[in-house]
Specification:
Blueprint: H1 6-26, E1 30-32, H2 53-70, E2 83-87, E3 93-98, E4 107-109
Parallel strand pairs: 1-2
Antiparallel strand pairs: 2-3, 3-4
Amino acid sequence: MKKLRFGDKARRYFWVLLFATYSVSAAGVMIDVLGDEYRHLSQVAVTTVDSDKEVRMSGASQVAAVYRASSGAPFSTLPAGSTFKVVWPDGSSEYVMIVNPASGTGVDPIPGSQQKAPAQAGDVPADASADASPTVGAR
């Protein structure tokens, strides 16, 4: 069995660490559409993860365009192939991938990344019966 020297191990760990750091930083963009610059976009105000795919694509494209325009380097921000997380107005979220920055629907939702909005305090669980009444125990 061949033993690796310290230099060989360090070189391998360096590349693994570099790859892991790049992977985490590449997917690190999260856009919350409740911000002032996104809140009034026409396709964003009515969008949730339950909306049709085309509506979500259009809303995410508008968000990406505004994000690019507000950045310091609009042509290198969110290039094709990059992903970002969109948090919709109801609190639901999903990851989308840029497929064509020049297109009006140039994003594609990543299947399986949709997260429903967290339940609010006043929400009734879906399995609760509407006519359920508390039972009174006999003494």
